[in-house]
Write a structure and sequence with these properties.
Helix content is about 45%, strand content about 15%. With about 350 residues, it is α/β, with parallel strands linked by helices. An eight-stranded parallel beta barrel has the order 1-2-3-4-5-6-7-9, surrounded by six helices.
Length: about 350
């Protein structure tokens, strides 16, 4: 079986001023590269610092590109309906050159309704706007002409970035969205947790996501390699009690936010919230056991870990990154450590 790639993801939620959030996130990504992670991904959020701390992901990743040399750098995601797609293409093209071809472009239709209003858009139209902007982005990467048919008006993307066509990813909760991503030959991005239907409150994340994966694979053109990224909440620590103490605070806060938005979260004890919010937390042995039970991870190409919504302090995030790379991921057949073990076993 092909070894799954190992990734790190952050929404930049450290409870510090914005400048320190950016410094901490950069240090976390540098640490992930040092321990052999294949990729690092950042989310885009506007206005609401409790949801995410980064409105300009390509700007931030340009900074990170200068601090790293090999780790792939991705957006997870750019909220494309709120962006000028040509400007996204231009910034992505420049960043890809500066990083030595390491950029992965993840896009989606997400974002809070109030953010859409602030940008002069209607949240109810996000699906339509996303499709239109994605086509513009795709056309730009393909080198198509913009702004008229006159030959003098040769408005093509500069710098050219045709390789980014093969590094587009779409985030979706639905089988229909996955089928669209598959039909386009794009990568599929799966969330760390998903709302459950009222009649399936106790469904596992795999129960929800396996049909999405199936729809993507069925729509993928023959000969096109599948790219499926599964994001998962993981906080691993040396001390079980410490890990659960931070989980208690973070998951209760997250559950309160979800419930305030109308989402039903089953249970209220810490163990119930860990299950309901699809969280893997504890010692190395505990998280290996819980992750091994996640059937959706069996067929993906990339497994990307984040500490949200546990959100421990920065120093413990760095330690968790180390434990993931050196102990958890190799045991699960994920990442460079697993590839090294496989090489030794066949030598």
């Amino acid at each position: 079986m092909t070894t799954r790639r190992l990734g790190f993801f952050t929404r930049l939620l450290d409870e510090v001023p914005a400048g320190d959030r950016y410094r901490y996130a950069a240090e976390q990504i540098v640490t992930a590269e040092r321990f052999g992670f294949d990729s690092a991904w950042v989310a885009q959020h506007h206005f609401h610092e409790a949801e995410g701390g980064l409105p300009s992901p390509l700007v931030f990743l340009s900074h990170v590109a200068a601090l790293t040399s090999g780790i792939r750098l991705g957006t997870g995601i750019i909220t494309l309906p709120l962006e000028n797609a040509i400007r996204v293409a231009e910034d992505a093209a420049v960043l890809d050159l500066l990083s030595g071809g390491r950029l992965e472009v993840g896009v989606g239709s997400g974002g809070t309704a109030s953010s859409f209003t602030a940008f002069g858009q209607q949240s109810s139209e996000r699906g339509r706007i996303f499709a239109e902007h994605l086509q513009v982005l795709r056309n730009a990467f393909a080198g198509e002409v913009f702004g008229g048919s006159d030959a003098v008006d040769d408005n093509r993307l500069y710098p050219a970035a045709p390789d980014l066509l093969g590094r587009l990813w779409q985030a979706t909760f639905s089988a229909a969205g996955a089928a669209r991503a598959g039909a386009a030959g794009d990568g599929l991005m799966l969330s760390r947790t998903q709302p459950r239907p009222a009649d399936e409150l106790y469904a596992t994340l795999a129960d929800i996501q396996l049909p999405v994966i199936d729809a993507y694979l069925e729509a993928l053109p023959d000969g096109t390699p599948s790219r499926i990224m599964a994001s998962r909440t993981l906080f691993v620590a040396d001390d079980r009690a410490e890990a659960r103490r931070y989980a208690e605070v973070g998951l209760r806060r997250a559950a309160a936010g979800f419930r305030a938005s109308g989402q039903v979260i089953a249970g209220d004890s810490l163990d119930e919230l860990i299950v309901s919010l699809d969280t893997h937390v504890g010692t190395v042995d505990e998280v290996i056991e819980s992750l091994a039970a996640d059937r959706a991870l069996d067929g993906v190409s990339d497994v990307v870990f984040q500490v949200h919504s546990v959100d421990p302090p920065h120093e413990l995030i760095l330690r968790s990154i180390e434990l993931i790379a050196t102990e958890v991921a190799p045991a699960l057949g994920i990442g460079v450590g697993a590839r090294h073990v496989q090489t030794l076993s066949h030598s």
